Amino acid sequence: MIQLSTLIDETPREFNAGRGVVFTWRPATYAEYLLAKQRAQTHIQQSAVALRADGKIGDDAEPHAALEAIALATAEAEAIMAEEIVLAATISWRGVGDPKGVPMPFSREAWRAYARALPNEADGYALQVLEPNLAIETEGNGSTPAHPGAAAGETPPVKAAPESSSSAA
Fold first, then answer.
1. Rounded-to-integer distance, Cα 15 and Cα 121, Å
2. Which of 27, 36, 60, 129 lies 20 to 30 Å from 54 when distance is taken between CA atoms?
3. pLDDT at position 66
């Protein structure tokens, strides 16, 4: 069982990303999470329009190329959502400076530069920040996980009813 009180606690936390970089952050609020999710969905919609206009998806598109295009748009949307949550949750950072050693304030551009330069460290921090929101999203509606293939629109397999021992032969 998850403890929602610990997940939504906005007490600042620190994450040591290595190489002398320390992030101070707090869990993103649910409103910030929803805004990030909306931006990601908007990206998917805009990508679908552009892909259809370019002929990459639709009735005349080559199926394999269409799947690749959709997968790329989805991955981009997930990255947008993660970045928005990281930007909302990060209070400050230490140990990041310009080439002259002058400390840089945390910003969208600085985060992107850091993520390009040190992708493993950036991913580690992003996962730390995203964890509370992902746990709330997973557990929030109390539903059981979807069956394999649900995302592709498949229906779950039907299990046969157990045979009753009282049935006549």
1. 11
2. 36
3. 86
